[in-house]
User: What shape does this take?
Amino acid sequence: MRKDNCIFCKIANGEIPSRTLYEDEEFRVILDLGPATKGHALILPKDHYADLFELPEEKAGEVMCLAKRMVMKMKEKLGCEGFNLVQNNGDLAGQTVFHFHMHLIPRYRADGQTIGWKPQEVSEEELEEVKNQIVD
Ligand code: 5GP
Ligand code: ZN
Assistant: This one.
């Protein structure tokens, strides 16, 4: 199902042109218009899901298989040495387009990008507490 006024629905379904690296019945992989590095790509499902919370498990599995195929091909063609797979959910987490997408970010030596977080100090007690909060 598509959502009116969703730009990624329009791109994924070909209503708005994009630089497409791959397409099948379920997905389109496009170049990001504001790339972190050369070749930064996005996997878009053709159906509308706002984020990972809405994405069905089966599709989530397919996204990962497609990511694997894409990074193998892009590594060979672009000669990058590494890859970051980034997937933001919710504006707090940095999501700006609310149609599920997976970033495929090729990494090159001295590409000047930093994708990461500041590690926090945590005690053994806090680790145990959070584990117990999550595990049934
Ligand atoms: P988010 O911050 O939601 O995880 O990522 C959204 C990404 O979509 C950004 O990297 C941004 O550059 C990209 N983007 C936003 N609008 C367009 C567009 O119209 N076309 C393409 N190809 N990428 C877009
Ligand atoms: Zn959409």
Remarks:
- Helices lie at 7-12, 57-78, 124-134.
- The pocket of zinc ion (ligand 2) is lined by residues 3, 6, 8-9, 48, 99 (CB under 6 Å).
- The two ends are 34 Å apart (CA to CA).
